[in-house]
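Next up, a chain.

===
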Amino acid sequence: RLSAVEALSERLAEAAAILCPENGSEFSTEVIQVQVQSPTMPNLSLIDLPGIIRTTTAGQDRSVIANVDALLESYLKQPETVILAVIPANQDIATIDILERAHHFDPAGVRTIGVLTKPDLIDRGAEDEVLKIVQNVRKPLKLGYVIVKNRSQLELKNSVTLAQSQLNEDAYFEGHDVWKKIVPSSRGIKPLCERLTCIIVNRSMDRGPFLKWYLVDKLNKTESKLTELGIEIPDTAVAMSKTLIKIVARYCATLRQIAVGDYRDQLAQSNTELRIRYHVTQILEELRQNLANNVPDLNNEEYAHKLHAGVSEMRGRELPGFGHTRLLLSTVADELQAWQLQVDEAVSQAFNAYTSTANALAMKMTVQIPKLYDEILSCLHLTCDLQAMEVGKRVDEMFLRCTESASTDQDLIDSINVIRFSRFENALKDVFAAAKDNQIDAKQSKAELQKHILDTLGGFYMHYHSIGFGATVQLEDAQAALRAYWSICEKRINEDVESAVDMMLLQRCSEVIETTLLSRTQEWLSDPVRLSVMMSEDPKVIEERKHLKMVRTNIKAALEKLDVIIPGCIAKSPFTL
């Protein structure tokens, strides 16, 4: 804090030395902010931009030109900015770049005013050319020009005050043969301030609706930031206890709600990343697609060849198409292992989604109370780690059932029986068709008739049991049995995983976390010292809240003054066509 204006120059030099190298040849895009507070000061921002650089000097990087241009443009393009185009009076105005830049961003000229400096450096006899500029003849500007004489280096060295400097300036213009011809409103610092005040007031009137929209928008954003910082923690033990209970209860209730897809809490409504049920549903849907896409292609030639080779090696009647249950299990083993890896990955993603969402929720509700946040986080990770182990066991058991119960699973047996019955009917139709084509002759002997019947029934038996009908029938039977197996496994795995994630993750984790936190809360409430430590606010949050409250107060005051200056002013977005 500085109480004297004279000390400001030294402090600015110190700041510049920190931002730039000692040789002073570099440029920094960092802003040095000087805040002046006084009950008589207007709420106004003055920005002293660097001069335009056309070429670099020894030791300067070429990027400094682009950096300065970008910095200038960032301020010139703002419609609220009033541009003071500062021009040395001893230079040819035709070579001054700032006027063209100002015209580019302010083509109507409603916020650009020219300021001529250093009139004492103009050569004798060249004053008339400058006079034409000040009189707005040579290079007209809608808001015109003002000529000023600042303190010289000698006056700065001798610590001439600003008040004395203004008296010196008035005396200089009045005593000059040419400058005294300039109208008083176009010469000196004081007339410049008065003209700037008129410009700012007029622009405030014209842009009042836009300014009000900006202030209202800024106020809403400030209120949102204050809300994000959480409620202030009271000092008394009773009030502190109530606040703790309120925060923990809200956290537990909201966590249970979002776990089942209930997003009634304001945080869940305004933060889509907290919608855990939706995210987990997306993970499970992706798992369904992956499992469906990874069912073996039973019609693949290489796979069919491998399958037929296995069928040919075994004989038996346990499953149609397979000589033994072990063949079925060996055939599906690799695919089942790949499926389990996909299930494990999906379950892991679901737990990560739950943990990160519960963590984000805790951060938003306890941003101002870091110790309480740490306690919730500890409880969260401990609970999720334990439940992840339980779900992992459930998944292992699920895949174990897919292998151990292959020959006894009633659903699989029913599906395979459908295949048997279908083949039985097809074989019977084929045999009847053959018998019909070979009609019985009435003159046949008993022995010949007996032989015909035996041949017909034998053909049916061989057809039904795939005897003598080649590899095609055996392969088709094996493929049909595998289709039944994969269909049942896919359905059951999807249902079991969804049930495990729902019951053991989303619901059970939320229940355990709530029980644990409520128990710990009772412990904290029973110890006033521990409660006070637990509910200590983050100093950074306290400071930021204080700053935001000040900003809110200033914005509200500005809105009140704007309503006085422009009664009935209605906010209008500058982005509205």
User: Anything to note?
Assistant: Residues 77-206 form a domain with the Rossmann fold fold (CATH 3.40.50.300).
